[in-house]
Amino acid sequence: MKSIADLRKSYERAELNEDASQADPLQQFDQWLKEAISSEVPEPNAMTLATVGSDLRPSTRVVLIKDYDARGIVWYTNYASRKGLELAGNPFAALQFHWVELERVVRIEGLVERISDEESDAYFHSRPLDSRIGAWASPQSEVISGRGVLVANAAKYAAQFMLQPPRPPHWGGYRLKPDNWQFWQGRKSRLHDRLRYTLQSEGDWLRDRLAP
């Protein structure tokens, strides 16, 4: 078996330079995300969300991006989960996309806020029925005695709500408002391309290159 210390890959698929990149990081992200989708990489919408609790311990998990525009990056979850409770205490968070096949990483940092009830309602009612029932059935991040708890809860709420489950009051969307973006493109000899965009007080973006 090969040692993990000996696992290496030469990154040679593409490059990222200042002349070819977008001046607006949202446009650069839109370009890369669309390329990831068109390239059919596995789950191009998956992103790692990092939060920090009151004990100053960081925590990460994978969530799915559901929308993005000039206001920020949107995902949905249980407000009473660990990430929800941590965001309630510390609203700053970080996101990361890793498109392995394209040798690309996008890192995003900023302030997080809940989206409006109207936006959460609209998305919730667009979900498959099983997913809507699941939002009621899972007391996310709580200790349960076994999978049977989830199955029983799902059956209970399916019988209670039939085909029209309302959005649970503990479930909805968050939006991260970026003030820092980083775009990383793997390059040969570990001389990777790494561009950072930092939001300025006047609303413009400062783009600079970081050593990899």
Secondary structure: elements and pairs:
Layout: H1 25-38, E1 46-52, E2 58-64, E3 67-69, E4 72-78, H2 82-89, E5 92-99, E6 104-114, H3 117-124, H4 129-137, H5 147-161, E7 171-185, E8 193-199, E9 205-209
Antiparallel strand pairs: 1-2, 1-5, 3-4, 4-7, 5-6, 6-7, 7-8, 8-9
Write out key terms for the chains shown.
single chain, 212 residues, alpha+beta, Pnp Oxidase, Chain A, 2 domains, nine-stranded antiparallel β-sheet, 5 helices, 9 strands, 25% helix, 33% strand
Q: How many distinct folded domains?
A: 2
Shape: globular
Provide the CATH architecture of the largest domain.
Roll
- β-strand percent reads 25-35%
Main sheet makeup: 9 strands, antiparallel
Distance between the termini: 30 Å
Counted by DSSP, the helix tally is: 5
Low-confidence stretches: none
Class inferred from helices and paired strands:
alpha+beta
> Would you count the extended β strands for me?
9
Give the CATH level 1 class of the largest domain: Mainly Beta
- Rg (CA only): 20 Å
Q: What's the pLDDT, averaged over the residues?
A: 96
The H-and-E topology, N to C, reads as HEEEEHEEHHHEEE
Enter the CATH topology name of the largest domain: Pnp Oxidase, Chain A
Overall helicity: 25-40%
CATH superfamily of the largest domain: Electron Transport, Fmn-binding Protein, Chain A
Give a structural overview.
There is one protein chain. By secondary structure, the protein is α+β, with helices and mostly antiparallel strands. α4 (129-137) packs across α5. It has 5 helices and 9 strands. The protein has helices at 25-38, 82-89, 117-124, 129-137, 147-161, and strands spanning 46-52, 58-64, 67-69, 72-78, 92-99, 104-114, 171-185, 193-199, 205-209. The chain has 2 domains: 9-125 and 168-209, Electron Transport, Fmn-binding Protein, Chain A (Pnp Oxidase, Chain A); 129-166, no CATH class. Strands 1, 2, 3, 4, 5, 6, 7, 8 and 9 form a 9-stranded antiparallel beta sheet that branches.
